[in-house]
Amino acid sequence: MTGLAGKGILVTRPREQAEPLIERLQAAGAHPVPFPAIEIAPPQDPARLRQGMNRLPELDWLIFISPTAVARFFAEFGERTLPASIHIAAIGEGSARALRQRGVGEIVFPEGNADSESLLALPAMQAVRGQKIMIVRGEGGREMLAETLRAR
Question: Using CA atoms, how far apart are residues 96 and 63, in angstroms rounded to an integer?
Fold first, then answer.
């Protein structure tokens, strides 16, 4: 981050995720201005997440959309172990890193862009007919990943 000295930078990341970026900007001489564009709140219906967790042994895939989704899932999941038969996917490197920090070994994720399109382009996501998949994500957002997987 060169050339940022003295510049004001609006940081729109959620409050819980902004600090590392703010520190990097300050180290580069910038003046970061926190302005969270979204707020991360607990799920409106935590029972739905628990129901999904009870179905883990039936699933073929568990897909995490963000590091926050990983954190919220494991906060509820606790110290239990994921079924050995389940495949784990992440939308990008940040989510994969959060999963590795929780002891998850094999993770399928795109190494370039961190988006639904890049994940869906991976060979592992092509032939999913008849497979049971749970997507761990926040409420709202795009439905494209789920819709595409259903269509496949």
Answer: 10
